[in-house]
Write a structure and sequence with these properties.
The structure is a homodimer of 236-residue chains.
Chain A (H helix, E strand, L loop, with lengths): L7 E6 L10 H9 L2 E6 L7 H6 L9 E6 L6 H14 L5 E6 L9 H11 L4 E5 L4 H9 L10 E5 L4 H10 L2 E5 L5 H10 L6 E5 L7 E3 L15 E6 L2
Parallel strand pairs in A: 1-4, 1-5, 2-3, 2-4, 6-7
Antiparallel strand pairs in A: 7-10, 8-9, 8-10
Chain lengths: 236, 236
């Protein structure tokens, strides 16, 4: 009789920052994993997702592998990340791949999973959703995103200007992500559209230094450039 | 010396159905609450959110109050729901108000909170985000919602037809919620736009009878009418 030993990979959303926003399932899988993959923006950086789950990881018992996470869509660097994951997961090994927020909403686990699947068709892949920074920021700001027939658009601030404007004009609620470098331009656009009073700024949502600014006009003279910042624009 | 006794209300997202998708914070607050408010669609219905958290509620120790939840925007029924909540929370009492998914993304806690705030300005109100059915359905289907410059639109299937079509033509990803009664029409629209092959149907996400249909063309002859169903349309 042969015991079939399957390797497993779980893409796990760890929420926006607050360790208490981990799901029970994330905690169980992280605790039981042989290998914990933690993405980092640049080699040598600390991993924010690893920081979020720190109290559930035991480095004496578990292997922790940091994986540099390409900022671009560059196929080659995705290949390297996926190969790193595939190489670690021998028979009967279980890996968790951490992502801030949710794995499939700007969490990029989709790319890793797609390549790992071709490299290792034997691997069982599971995805565990997490609390997204979109809803966490709304909770922090006390702003309802959508109800009834409202439509919500989630748009990266790096999208073309005309796409952002179209969403702002059309949707009841727009969340603009990663506003860091372009906050000044966005505030000017919101002013032109008469939406500044309907906008909330949330920075470093879920972290101890989280900041919610409801009077965003005050940001116009000197817009902060924090990468982990978003705007919620509520038209009604 | 006076001990200031503050009443507290926490709007808590309990995720889409799977009890393991509760956050640690939700579990802690539910466990510590004096009163658990559980919305129901119609008086006498069982509460889905209460079912999700059942193992964390102790009815011998905690008071459980079901609150009929208006399906419409009718102000009067919201008033009744909010008054019910306010009346239960005497000094030093802590209530949790459960919502499926997330409290502020079609979770309607915004309405309750707004009215409770006027009735009881002394009450401390906190909102705890939860895993949304949007990201949970994507995880179940293994479909990435958005990455890099992609834009995501979340649109109730009850929105006007032209708004739905505009989102489908413009956005890289569209999630159509509550497709129950109009699934047939939506499938016809998706066929006309050449998007049927790019669509996934997810029903009862997170519940034991969850169903994921990747070949949605098969649904066209006899579209199911399940209320808790959504479509994910991924243009690229």
């Amino acid at each position: 009789m042969t015991h079939i030993r399957t390797a497993r990979l779980s893409g796990v959303g760890v929420g926006p920052g607050d360790p208490e926003l981990l799901t029970l399932k994330a905690v169980r899988l992280i605790h039981g994993a042989d290998v914990v993959f933690a993405p980092v923006r640049r080699p040598g950086d600390r991993s924010l997702s690893l920081e979020i789950v720190a109290e559930h990881v035991d480095e004496r018992r578990q292997r922790v592998v940091t994986v540099p996470f390409p900022e671009s869509q560059d196929g080659e660097s995705w290949d390297a990340a996926a190969r790193r994951v595939a190489d670690e997961l021998g028979p009967d090994r279980h890996g968790v791949f951490l992502t801030e927020g949710d794995p499939l909403l700007f969490g990029s686990f989709g790319h890793v999973a797609a390549i790992v699947r071709t490299l290792r068709p034997d691997l069982e892949i599971e995805i565990v959703p997490g609390v997204s920074s979109v809803t966490a920021a709304a909770a922090a700001a006390g702003v309802a995103l959508a109800d009834y027939q409202d439509r919500l658009a989630v748009v990266p601030a790096t999208a073309p200007h005309d796409q952002i404007e179209r969403a702002l004009v059309d949707f009841e609620c727009v969340v603009l992500l990663k506003v860091g470098r372009v906050l000044g331009e966005l505030l000017a656009l919101l002013e032109r559209l008469g939406l500044v009073e309907r906008t909330v700024y949330v920075r470093r949502c879920g972290w101890p230094d989280q900041q919610v600014v409801t009077d965003v006009r005050a940001l116009i003279p000197s817009p902060p450039r924090d990468y982990f910042a978003l705007l919620i624009v509520r038209r009604r």
